[in-house]
Amino acid sequence: MHFLDLPPWLLSLLLAPFGLVLGSFGNVLIHRLPLEDPADRNVATKPSHCPRCKARIRWYHNVPLLSWLVLRGKCADCGAPISFRYPLVELLGGLILAGSVWVFPFGTLIWFKGVICALALLVLFFTDFTEFMLPDVLQFPLMALGLLFTVPQIFWPEHLTTVVGHGWNLLRVETFLNGLQAAPAWIPAGHLPVTWKESLIGLVAGYGLPWLVNLLYKLIRKTDGLGMGDFKMLAWLGAFWGWGAMLGILFAASLLAVVFALPLLISGRAKGQTMLPLGCFLALGTLPVVFYGPALWAGYQALFR
Ligand SMILES: [Zn+2]
Q1: pLDDT class of 123 with cuts at 50, 70, 90
Q2: Are 10 and 106 in contact (CB under 8 A)?
Q3: pTM of the prediction?
Q4: pLDDT single digits (tens) 19-67
Q5: pLDDT score recorded for residue 20
Q6: N or C end of the chain, less CB within 10 A?
Q7: How far is the CA of 18 from the centre of ligand 1 (A)?
């Protein structure tokens, strides 16, 4: 397998437009997937309309970032304000693809996995943020994908990918590892890739653990403490990054949720029953764990020594 590893800045420039377009498609998913009517959830063929005047969005008003700036955040037909979320998600999509080559070797499986995960988290963050919803139609395929990503390394555990590095040197990188940092493997000794067992345990425990917590909560408070979407999100994150990382993500997300909720509870603006978009915290919590998981875990253990 050969991949041309151009200088990262050049790859970033080449990939960024694709990221902007993916971000633009992400906006369609964020808007349509939470809709009530299944016919409205069609994200493939139905053209975009202004939600107020129903005018069809013309292609030249649908250019990522630029159109929103040119139209100054308003519908070209009726002047209805267009949410700032649109250019923001497009920009983040562009940044994800542009940034991906700086943290993962372009063309390797781990690069692809990282990009898929980041784009999925981007969409789920905003469906949860705006509608308190994490669509099954995204999360079930992500569970399967997380497991599938571990299959090639069962058959080709030592597989190497040749990339052309700076100064046109040929470099051999392990296909299933992150060549630059130990991020995706939550294993203190050695930077191994996520195995199919860790992935499968991550999937099952990711769903089962919050399910158990919720069961206890239900027995005590007689109401659901967590949404089903949160279980499924943790399940696919477990399938992607292994059960150890999944526990880290759950911990980081809980910490973030507490930090966010405490001021609201103290000031009386939220009560014990106020809904929190836990999916948003899971998305944010994934970043430090995937990138710095082993280092954070080592630091945590050192505290008790
Ligand atoms: Zn309009």
Answers
A1: very high
A2: no
A3: 0.85
A4: 999 999 999 999 999 887 887 888 777 788 888 888 888 888 888 999 9
A5: 96
A6: C
A7: 27
What is the pLDDT, as a whole number, of residue 182? 35
Q: How far apart are CA 20 and CA 23, in angstroms?
A: 5
pLDDT surpasses 60 at 206: yes
Helix, strand or coil for residue 81?
A: strand
Q: How far is the CA of 54 from the centre of ligand 1 (A)?
A: 6
To 10 degrees, what angle do helices 228-266 and 109-131 make?
Answer: 60
The answer to whether the beta carbons of residues 173 and 105 sit under 8 Å apart is: yes
**How far apart are alpha carbons 18 and 9 in whole angstroms?**
15
Ligand 1 centre and the CA of 78: distance in Å? 4
Q: Rounded to the nearest whole angstrom, what is the distance from the C-alpha of residue 85 to the centroid of ligand 1? A: 17
Contacts of 298 (CB under 8 A, 6+ apart): 188
Residue 188 CA to residue 239 CA, distance in Å, equals 19
What letter does residue 251 receive in the DSSP assignment? H
Pairing mode, if any, of strands 160-164 and 2-3? parallel
Q: Looking up tokens 């542009």, which residue turns up?
A: 98
86 burial (CB, 10 Å; 0-12 / 13-18 / 19+) is buried
Ligand 1 center–CA 67 separation, angstroms? 14
Residue 172 forms beta bridges with which residues? 162
In terms of Cα–Cα distance, which of 23, 80, 87 is closest to 50?
80
